[in-house]
Amino acid sequence: MDSGLCLVSSNHQEILHQNHFYDPSWLQKQCKVPTNFVWPKEYLVNANEEFQAPLIDLDGFLKGNEEATNNAAKLISKACSTHGFFQVINHGVDLSLVGEAYDQMDAFFKLPIDKKLGVRKMKGSMWGYSGAHADRFSSKLPWKETLSFPFHDNNSFEPVVTNYFNSTSLGEDFQQTGVSFQKYCEAMKKLGMKVMEILAISLGVDRLHYKYLFEDGCSIMRCNYYPSCQEPSVALGTGPHCDPTTLTILHQDQVGGLDVFADQKWQTVRPRSDAFVVNIGDTFTALSNGRYKSCLHRAVVNRYKERRSLAFFLCPKQDKMVRPPQDIVVIDGTKKYPDFTWSQLLHFTQNYYRADEATLQNFTKWLLSSNTRNHLP
């Protein structure tokens, strides 16, 4: 590499930080990772083996085969009781939708930084473009860019994703992006509701028990782009955390970089183009009364290749109460978490707490504090 490209301009870095964004084309040229992106050594322990992720074939379940459904439910129960992670194949999603979604996100992330900043995430909003989450944090920054937008499928028949892109400054060139992601999100929501059904079966409760929470909820779609990094041993694409949402359905490209913490060690997850990664989030841990573990995971970066992933976060309707089925509480003998709404947990993670492996425990303490109860959203 040209040594001229390896100089970190402190002035440029200062300007970038003051404006709360980082230009990935600039970041990729740095031989030394900027200080804001360096993670402490305890977060950087290598994953030296491949995780034998449970692979769930949904074909029989989707066709109504009772034996196949029970077998899948048993596999899911074991996975979720230990690490909260599995992959699904024969899931009914047209893979051409996945390819189209990648094409559309590639077109966006290849835009000049000033164009992307035209749809930047504003303070207090969940939606838009973010470079390294520098709008929220100043250290241990993730080596990535994201584009987040909402999806819900209420009875208004309004194509919310299509409308979102039409309302941005991206112009006519990105009208098809809205159409493509509208279809992708519809497929993800349908798959998510099916996974919720089999999760209920695996817990021994009515298969439609959780449906009322999610059928009119607003979910989160996030496109992740991880630039190549000259010093991948000191940076992370995403730090170790559990998702505060209910369920994450992720498709990762063939570069790889997703690590899961299982059996007391970090392990790599080999990409499968025909599979979706599914992981349990904190909200479903509460909905299962702690029986199912929220998955601790991270994303590493690559020296030679960029990496992309598509993440759909299934969320309950914000004002509906998150509480486990009474049948489970009776069997367990105690209720492990207080009732809460998704809007309260979202408010906590957006305003007071950076999601990690202890989000749910710290949220519970926050929720139960007398000062908090007077100021809940």
Automatic annotation (TrEMBL):
Q: Please name the Gene3D superfamilies in this protein's record.
A: B-lactam Antibiotic, Isopenicillin N Synthase, Chain
Q: Which cofactor does it need?
A: L-ascorbate
Query: Could you tell me the Gene Ontology terms of the biological process aspect for this record?
Result: gibberellin biosynthetic process
Where is each Fe2OG dioxygenase domain found?
A: 216-316
UniProt entry keywords in alphabetical sequence: Iron, Metal-binding, Oxidoreductase
The record lists the catalysed reaction(s) as: gibberellin A12 + 2 2-oxoglutarate + 3 O2 + H(+) = gibberellin A9 + 2 succinate + 3 CO2 + 2 H2O
The protein's name is Fe2OG dioxygenase domain-containing protein
Q: Which organism is it from?
A: Pisum sativum (Garden pea)
